[in-house]
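Fill in residues.
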């Protein structure tokens, strides 16, 4: 799906760099373009927030899983 029609930027392109970009400006810089009409900027910002939150939740889940593994390892000794 196109997120930025002015530059032809698709959602998947944003998702590929979302963890390395903090702002829509950084997204445009990484993609070698710049905002034109700026109607896409709020949606790009939302994609960045959601991607970072999903990564954070995944990291928390992995940490909790490791805690359970560690607890079971200690319990088996």
């Amino acid at each position: 799906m196109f997120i930025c029609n002015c530059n032809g930027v698709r959602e998947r392109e944003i998702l590929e760099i979302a963890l390395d970009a903090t702002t829509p400006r950084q997204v445009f810089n990484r993609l070698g373009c710049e905002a034109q009409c700026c109607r896409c900027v709020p949606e790009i910002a939302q994609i960045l927030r959601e991607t970072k939150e999903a990564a954070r939740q995944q990291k928390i889940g992995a940490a909790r899983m490791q805690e359970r593994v560690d607890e079971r390892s200690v319990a088996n000794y």
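The radius of gyration is 18 Å.
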